[in-house]
TrEMBL record:
Signal peptide: none
Ranges where the record places region Disordered: 149-173
Segments crossing the lipid bilayer: none
Annotated keywords: Hydrolase
Protein name: Acyl-CoA thioesterase II domain-containing protein
Family, per entry: Belongs to the C/M/P thioester hydrolase family.
InterPro entries: ACOT8-like_C, Acyl-CoA_hotdog, Acyl_CoA_thio, HotDog_dom_sf, TesB_ACOT8-like_N
A GO CC annotation given for this chain: peroxisomal matrix
Residues annotated as domain Acyl-CoA thioesterase-like N-terminal HotDog: 42-118
UniProt keyword annotation of Hydrolase present: yes
Amino acid sequence: MADSANLDQAESKRISTALEVEQLDDNLFRSKELYLPFRARGVFGGQVISQAIVSATKCVSPEFALHSLHCYFLLSASPAVPIIYNVDRVRHGRTYTTRLVRANQRGRTVFVMICSFQIPEPEQLSHQWAMPEIPSPEQCPDEVEVLKENAQDSSRPDETKAQLRQYAEERSTSPIHTRRVGNYIGPEGTPVFMCWMKPKDEAILGYISDTHFLPIAAHTLRLNRFGGGVAPYGMLSSLDHSIHFYSNDFDCNDWILYMTTSPVTASGRGYVTGRMYSRTGSLIAITTQEGVVRARLEKPNQSKL
């Protein structure tokens, strides 16, 4: 009989099924599919965010659009047990309305999210930071192909090459196409990472926003995942995540540019920020995340007296 976690991962290759929730009561919902990424400690955070968004949206009048969310990851969620989403209708105003979502599993709260919805005001004045001039998605290398090429590098240890092949296989079954644009050093002196992302199926922005996000803090520190770097990975785990949406006029199933950078990492925590642009150059969302970012450090030898 096939392993249940593998079945969960196979099913969640389709984002549309991965985001579905079953409505149990007016304010109560249950996950249908859960996804455990490569070497992850728990269910993919972007999926939990997205299912919470779907649950909250079902408890809001259709004229309201999601404009911001703030969430905390409290415990790692298992892919083997459904998550229950309880929506609290905190406030309902004429222009803005607020919902609080608690995600529970095995009697414990694993995730909380407060989100705000707004009746859009397109007639108001606007401005945005322009999207940088970069190659189109068609001109950028596919992430899976890059990983496979790196796995064939004869200078890498066999163990590292095996890890790269395994990661390439996991990324090939991901519901998100990723093409790497590259990175550059920003005016603050830290790397800015860029990639194009496009769902293989239908998606919502919350799912995409957690893809390749917190690891940017580890990349900035040059932590070693597949060889090289200054120190091996110790632990990466999301603590909180926020999104502010500034456009509803875009196709989430087309290519989206994700620009990410890490302003600071200290005391075992890293902070990352992101900008998401539509293919036509509209700045559609601003994202932030903080998480546990630890290197696996060697403890100094202590002399015995």
